[in-house]
Every structure is written in C-alpha cells, then in structure tokens.
Amino acid sequence: MWSDVEKAGLDLAKKLCEDDPVRKNIPYDWRVDSPNKEIFHLEEKAVLCVAHLNAIPITEEELMSFGWGNFSIFYTVWSKEKGLGRKIIVDTWELLKMQHTGNRYVTMSPKTEMAMKFHLSNGAILLQENSETNNFEYK
After folding, report:
1. Which residues in 88-102 are b (16+ Cβ under 10 Å) and which e?
2. For the whole prediction, is pTM greater than 0.90?
3. pLDDT for 16-51, tens place per residue?
4. Measuring CA to CA, which residue among 10, 45, 53 is closest to residue 30?
5. Residue 84 — left, alpha, or beta (φ > 0 → left; ψ -120 to 50 → alpha)?
6. Which of 28, 34, 55, 111 has the most CB atoms in a 10 Å sphere around its CB?
7. Which of 18, 46, 42 is nearest to 31 (CA)?
8. 74: helix, coil or strand?
9. 108: which residues sit within 8 A by CB, 6+ positions away?
10. pLDDT in tens, 100-116
C-alpha cells in the first residue's frame, strides 16, 4: 500500500538530497519548486525524485528545462535499506497513477548495469538508450 510514501517539503528535500548518489548536481530546491516536481520518501530511508514534464528528457539539461506535461519522469532513486528502492518505485507509481491518470511513467536512468537490472527486474521496459542515460517505462 502506498500510504507509507510521503512527499517532502523544502527543508526535508535539502536533507534528503545530500545523500543523492545519482544526481548530486541538481539543486534540492529545484526538485520541489513547483507543483510538477516532487520528492517522495519512505521514512527518509528511500527517496524518489519525480518531474512531470511535456517530453522525455535524456540529459539533466533537458530535465531541468522541459515544461509541465504528462510524462512522470523518475530521475533519481536511492535507498538506505535493501528492498526499499523497489518499494518506493512501485508505491509511488501506484500513488501517481491515481493522481495523474493518463500519464506515462518513465525513468531517466544512468547507463549502469545496476540501473538496468534494477528497472528491468521491477517490471519496466527499456524504452530507449541514449548517449548519457537510458529511459525505462513502467506500464
């Protein structure tokens, strides 16, 4: 059940983003500065950053410049406990499907074997490979 997933405000976003191993250079305040950008967490032990955009980004520059739309982009996820990365992806995805009907749920993932295995094992499909990132889609 997604009831464990909570949305972070600005103060908590600052604290949570200090531990981001994927996208440290994206400012914490940008991640929550408008209604189309959200940070979700599970008891501060797992974190998922989401931006609802009008196109699928393949670089951080695109991620930060695209406008609001119906692509929910999961652009960074990390956890401090085994199994919580999967839980936050699945639980947040279920929550967002109720809030944003008709959206597509796509990642902007680093090109690592770990990210590839993680998303494929959690039910995503590889949508496209890019020079810097891979996009997986959860359907």
Report:
1. bbebbbebbeeebee
2. yes
3. 999 999 999 999 999 999 999 999 999 999 999 999
4. 10
5. alpha
6. 28
7. 18
8. strand
9. 56, 57, 58, 63, 73, 74, 75, 133, 135
10. 889 999 999 999 999 99
Q: Look-up: residue for tokens 């500065």?
A: 33
Tokens representing 123 are 């039910």
Question: What CATH architecture does domain 2-89+96-138 belong to?
Answer: 3-Layer(aba) Sandwich (3.40)
Read off φ and ψ for residue 68, nearest 5 degrees.
Answer: -65, 135
Q: Domain residues of the chain, as ranges? A: 2-89+96-138
What is the rounded distance in angstroms from the CA atom of residue 92 to the CA atom of residue 105?
10
One DSSP character per residue, 12-47 reads: HHHHHHTT-SS-TTS-TTGGGSSTTEEEEEETTTEE
Angle made by CA atoms 87, 60, 45, in degrees to the nearest 5: 25
Contact call for residues 76 and 43 (beta carbons, < 8 A)? no
Please name the helix (run of DSSP H) or strand (run of DSSP E) that holds residue 50, with its range, or none. strand 46-53
